Amino acid sequence: MLLRAAATGAIARLGYKRPDRGSDATRVRGEFLGFPVRGHAGSARVGGRRLQAVGAWIEGRLDLSCTQVPMSLRL
Is residue 46 within 8 Å of residue 36, measured between CB atoms? Predict the structure, then answer.
């Protein structure tokens, strides 16, 4: 869902609000989230110069150090 939304520039709606804890429906690994942000998502590159995820529980570290983020990032 996140990669599909990123490719079209749409909002990835995993929930309606920030969850109190992760579940199978809302959990996104920080390491996985870093791929489209850095442009490594292959055919699912970020379209519309933005990546937005609503209601996601980011699990683990999202390491963007030494990364130039060429888009708007809203989590």
Answer: yes
Task: Say what the pTM is.
Answer: 0.72
Helix (H/G/I), strand (E/B), else coil: 31: helix
Encoded amino acid at 57, one letter: W
Residue 8 main-chain phi, psi, to 5 deg: -100, -10
Running DSSP on this structure, what letter comes out for residue 62? -
Instruction: For 16, list phi and psi in degrees, rounded to 5.
Output: -100, -15
- Domain map (residue ranges) of the chain: 2-74
pLDDT tens track, the chain, 75 positions: 888 887 888 888 988 888 999 899 899 999 888 887 777 665 556 776 778 889 999 999 999 888 888 778 888
Within 10 angstroms of residue 46's Cβ, the number of other Cβ atoms is 23
